[in-house]
TrEMBL record:
Positions of post-translational 4-aspartylphosphate modification: D58
Species assigned in the record: Hyphococcus lacteus
Keywords, comma-separated and alphabetical: Phosphoprotein
Protein name according to UniProt: Response regulator
Domain Response regulatory per the UniProt entry, residue ranges: 7-125
Superkingdom per UniProt: Bacteria
Pfam families documented for this protein: Response_reg
Length: 134
């Protein structure tokens, strides 16, 4: 079990969704540091300086969307081992297939409501930061 402090990068253009995700992470553990990027280019800039333990990334964003950012992260030798969980309101087979074909570690459909979002975030963090050995 990982006992050190972890960092999670949120790549989310919607401020309300980002605030809800940050609050859910804080409720899970106040020891987890969060980084926020508002789109793919911003995420890649931050990843050139800092290395989070987990990336939670929206698919639909302006400028560089999550699909393109995922492809760039998983093509970079320095970054490809970081688990990336793609999040979307889309259940499109095309989106799901694309993300897994480009080595997303998981794909989740964003739930509606804070309680369900908190449960989703808790499940993701529990698996990637406590259960999975990295």
């Amino acid at each position: 079990m990982n006992t050190q402090s972890n960092t999670v990068m949120l790549v989310e253009d919607d401020d309300i969704d980002a605030i809800a995700l940050e609050k859910a992470i804080e409720l899970y553990s106040s020891d987890i540091k969060t980084m926020r990027a508002t789109e793919g280019e911003d995420a890649l800039r931050q990843l050139s300086r800092d290395r989070p333990d987990l990336i939670l990334m929206d698919i639909r964003m302006p400028r560089m969307d999550g699909r393109t950012a995922l492809n760039k992260i998983k093509s970079d030798e320095r970054l490809k081992s970081i688990p990336v969980v793609m999040m979307s309101t889309s259940e499109s087979d095309e989106d799901v297939h694309y993300c897994y074909q480009n080595y997303a570690n998981a794909y989740v459909v964003k739930p509606i409501g804070f309680d369900m979002s908190t449960k989703m975030v808790s499940n993701i963090l529990n698996f990637w930061l406590k259960t999975a050995i990295q």
